[in-house]
Design goal:
Rossmann fold, 202 residues, alpha/beta, seven-stranded mixed beta sheet
């Protein structure tokens, strides 16, 4: 995330707070702790959070708040932050859940804040139907889902975030699919507060 931000002229503000969604056992959290004044490390797994708390304690990381995401609306109740980070996590949620989580995270960004995240955006032959998913007796042990890139762009626009950089990656290991890493930035002035070019020309 540092390299992406710096090559786009983005620097962290003093006292910056980062929200990490899907911290797991804290492998990435350790490094985020060095870049931000504080980190809110979120995960759905209580045992993973316990391991992360133990590991980060050994490294002397005392600027982390751990949060178990026990209900979908928990992110909505979090304070505003300066950055959000999520890698190899959103892909394990059904598309409606990916869209909801992403919207929540982007909605928590302060003006000028950034979002750095990865999600699969294309897979040949992939399809998703809510009813089929809900009616299924069981799901694969490791669930992998896709959120088309146009939906990511739509969510970003709805949350007043501009697209800074987009790059394909190979994080899923599936060479026939496209996984994508995004860097977004919250607009300092929401588009709704600006004057449309067409109207200004009248």
């Amino acid at each position: 995330m540092n390299h992406w931000a710096r090559r786009n002229g983005i620097e962290w503000r003093p006292g910056s707070v980062c929200l990490e969604y899907g911290c797991g056992t804290g492998r990435t959290t350790r490094w985020l702790c060095q870049d931000f004044q504080s980190v809110i490390a979120c995960d759905i797994s209580g045992p993973h959070l316990a391991l992360a708390r133990e590991a980060l304690g050994r490294f002397g990381c005392n600027n982390v708040e751990f949060l178990q995401v026990a209900s979908p609306d928990l992110l909505d109740r979090q304070p505003q932050v300066d950055a959000v980070f999520s890698m190899l996590v959103l892909q394990h949620n059904p598309p409606p859940a990916i869209a909801y989580i992403l919207g929540c995270m982007l909605g928590k960004l302060r003006p000028g804040g950034i979002a750095f995240f990865q999600v699969p955006t294309f897979d040949p032959g992939y399809s998703f139907a809510v009813r089929e998913y809900l009616d299924a007796v069981e799901h694969p042990k490791i669930e992998m889902y896709v959120l088309p890139q146009r939906h990511v762009f739509q969510i970003a626009a709805e949350r007043d975030c501009e697209i800074v950089e987009v790059q394909p990656d190979n994080w899923t290991g599936n060479l026939s699919a496209i996984s994508t890493t995004f860097l977004l930035r919250k607009r300092i002035t929401p588009l709704s507060d600006s004057v449309p070019v067409a109207a200004n020309a009248l």
